[in-house]
Automatic annotation (TrEMBL):
SMART domains: AAA (SM00382). The keyword Mitochondrion does not apply. Keywords: ATP-binding, Cell membrane, Ion transport, Iron, Iron transport, Membrane, Nucleotide-binding, Transport. It is found in: Cell membrane. GO terms for molecular function: ATP binding. Gene3D superfamilies: P-loop containing nucleotide triphosphate hydrolases. The keyword Nucleotide-binding applies. Residues 4-240 form the ABC transporter domain. CDD domains: ABC_Iron-Siderophores_B12_Hemin (cd03214). This is ABC transporter ATP-binding protein.
Length: 268
């Protein structure tokens, strides 16, 4: 399994620097969560990691090979990506969507094969979508649709999955459903998972490694208990809070204070 890393990576939109001289090694076979305030560069970093955005400096590496020295197909065969709020053509079925994950393996010499069919079936099975395979994607619930997109990424058959806010616009039950699925993929298949998350408590619950980004740079990174501190939340999110122990898992839990909290006595 190859490792994903950056060296002196700088990314920009329309000439405006967003990510600056960033060095990051993604732990192989673990779940990594990217957290930070809106506009800090989390999604930009994720796009850079899969070569959707060309750097203005530095590079991204799979082991010792720059991904910019690989073909588009080679990158797609090693890095699976689920962008934020993906859109599919109207009427597309779940099976058709998942089958698109096999496109990096198709060419004029190698058309659809028994192996492709097997991998699509496995992706549908893992995501519990076999019974919904012939349903149109736009008839599904939000959680079911998100599982279908994850199944498409699984069909790429990559060791590394990168997901940009996979729980956005989902209710709490569906958020947990999606995060549990990603956790199972990591635990049962050893896949390396990198995801942008807004919910700090979910990041601490599900991730082995948390990267806090502030203004295009890594503010701090490490295990949740190292990263999730009151000082980090104040510096990165401009928010006062108390960090306590999650009563279920014992992971760090952020309790925001806000104006209302300041009017009460908050124990340290």
């Amino acid at each position: 399994m190859k490792g994903l890393s950056t060296k002196s990576l700088s990314l920009a939109y329309d000439g405006v620097p967003i990510i600056r001289d960033l060095n990051l090694a993604i732990p192989t076979g673990k779940i990594t969560a990217l957290v930070g305030a809106n506009g800090c560069g989390k999604s930009t970093l994720l796009r850079g990691l899969v070569r959707l955005l060309k750097p203005i400096g530095g590079s991204v590496y799979l082991d010792s090979t720059s991904i910019f020295n690989l073909s588009t197909k080679e990158v797609a065969q090693q890095l699976g990506i689920l962008p934020q709020s993906p859109v599919a053509p109207e009427g597309l079925t779940v099976r058709d969507l998942v089958a698109q994950g096999r496109y990096p393996y198709q060419n004029w010499l190698q058309q659809w094969s028994a192996k492709d069919e097997k991998i699509v079936q496995q992706a549908l099975l893992i995501t519990d979508l076999l019974e919904l395979a012939e349903r149109a994607l736009d008839t599904l619930s939000g959680g079911q649709r998100q599982r279908a997109w994850i199944a498409m990424a699984l069909a790429q058959d990559t060791d590394i999955l990168l997901l940009d806010e996979p729980t956005t616009f989902l209710d709490l039950a569906h958020q947990i459903e999606v995060l549990d699925l990603l956790y199972d993929l990591n635990q049962n298949q050893g896949r390396t998972i990198v995801m942008v998350l807004h919910d700090l408590n979910q990041a601490c619950r599900y991730a082995d490694y948390v990267v806090a980004v502030k203004q295009g740079r890594i503010f701090t990174a490490g295990e949740p208990k190292q990263v999730m501190t009151e000082e980090m939340v104040k510096e990165v999110f401009a928010l006062e809070c108390r960090v306590i122990s999650d009563p279920v898992l014992g992971t760090p839990m952020c309790v925001p204070i806000g104006r209302k909290g300041k009017s009460n006595t908050i124990p340290n």
